[in-house]
Design brief:
The chain is an alpha+beta fold. It folds into two domains: 2-32 and 118-210 and 337-368; 59-109 and 230-316, no CATH class. The protein is built from twelve helices and eight strands. The chain has helices spanning 2-29, 33-44, 59-70, 112-127, 135-160, 167-174, 182-212, 214-224, 233-241, 252-259, 318-331, 336-368; strands at residues 74-79, 87-91, 96-99, 106-107, 268-272, 279-285, 295-301, 307-312. It has an eight-stranded antiparallel sheet with strand order 4-3-2-1-5-6-7-8, covered by helices on one side. Strand 7 and strand 8 (307-312) form a beta hairpin. Helix 8 (214-224) crosses helix 11.
Amino acid sequence: MRRILFWMHLCTGVLIGILVVYFSITGILIAYERPILNAIDKQNYKAAPASADAVRMPLAKLISETESAAHARVEMITVHPDPVSPVELQTANREVFFADAFSGAVQGPMSPRARAFFLQVTALHRWFGLSEAHHAVATAVKGAVTLLFLFLLVSGATLWIPSRWTGTTFRTGAVPRFDVRGRARNYNWHKVTGLWLGLPLAVLVVTGVIMAYPWANALLFRLAGSPMPVRNAVRENSHRHGNGASPIPGNLDEAFTQATSHGESWQSASLRLPANAGELNITVDRSEGGHPEKREQVFVDATTGRVLRRVSFDGLSRGQRWRSWVRFIHTGEAGGWWGETLATSTASGAILLSVTGFLLAFHRLRRLRP
């Protein structure tokens, strides 16, 4: 039985090894996207200090100014509590502009090369860089690779357990050796990497499966004992493609003021402009990102600026709370810089497992030749 499992493990590794390396490299390249872009934007943004009696320009005016400068519709607006911080505006073509909240001066697009790089690598990581028409096929392939990699982790953990426990066998699988070469080195590094990074790799794989497959996502909600939320496909499609020019609500400033006036201090408040401006959904984040438990959805009447309802993290169902963590656990953002570093190290471990696995398989198959 162990021999059969070994050959299944070997053949599966040879089958998907190249794609595991591919997804690991692209994942590493986008691991620090948010802090890198924040650092570049902070360095590039220049603004004159506002006078003591300066008055903030209406957000609707800032949107109009940005759309004129960008020649594109503004799709998302983000404000910060620090009066020195610029208002961030993202257009429908994913370009980001910064607007001075007092003078209305628009700068941008901000860090276009860096953002284009991360967008391209993200597209490669998620869909092999294919067009939207082929996203379903790309997701299916990626999901299949993820499931097979999960089998590699389970079968590898089983094969790691020695048939006889001795000090030598334990050290071979737990302590890296740098005084050996060839097959002995590859075997040692393969087992040691699997032991120390097997658990975080399993976390990356499981969260990847949940994001790739609707059945895995539904299973998460079933385990949580929560019903699947109903998605508003019409509204999502209008956000994605834009059904004509969306009217700009006139009292956005009042809406943001009301949305951020509740509870503890906040770090950012974002609004994705809807196709119809009847109800504004403002996301108030009380963290630097990566912490869904510190986010609140505030629904504001676009005409009166009155808060209609607030949906905090605790107000979500258990399944929705679990699902909110999946992406940030997968990317490591949930743990801040150390979580992103752990995710990067784990992806590097997957590369090492693939390379040493290929070398071991090549050595094994070469021995089978007559």
